[in-house]
Amino acid sequence: QEQLVESGGGLVQPGGSLRLSCAASGFTFERYAIGWFRQVPGRAREAIACIDPSDVASVWPDSVKARFTISRDNTKNTVSLQMGDLKPDDTAVYHCATDRTPYCTGRFLWSDFYGQGTLVTVSS
After folding, report:
1. Contact 26, 2 (CB under 8 A)
2. Number of H helices, E strands in the chain
3. pLDDT (tens digit, 9 = 90+) per residue, 26-68?
């Protein structure tokens, strides 16, 4: 059974850091690009970051490029998102996702394979 399970979310003060992790199972992890999008209720999903099988990483929104880093561990079938200098606008549910291809170009915008998500709340 294909599965993506996120962890690491929580409540953090502005300026703080969090590390999200995603454990993948049921498919050949090292063959696919994988990453994260976030979603706020009532808004469209926003692609955040992706890392391909060659470890080439992409981080898209200008608002997070200098603060977020994505990495993967093919030996553990995990992908992580290190988030720093968090801001209230980063509050969202963060989902791990893959388009089931080796490429990040789709940005998970239409992906139907993603985890349940982990809530990140940035508030004082």
Report:
1. yes
2. 0, 10
3. 999 999 999 999 999 999 999 999 999 999 999 999 999 999 9
3-state secondary structure of 2: coil
Closest CA to 107 of 57, 65, 46, 63: 46
Calculate the alpha carbon distances from 29 to 46, 72, 86 in Å: 23, 10, 29
Which tokens hold the place of 50? 């992706």
At a CB cut-off of 8 Å and minimum separation 6, what does 3 contact? 24, 25, 26, 115
What are the tokens at 111?
A: 């992906």
Q: Are 97 and 6 in contact (CB under 8 A)?
A: no
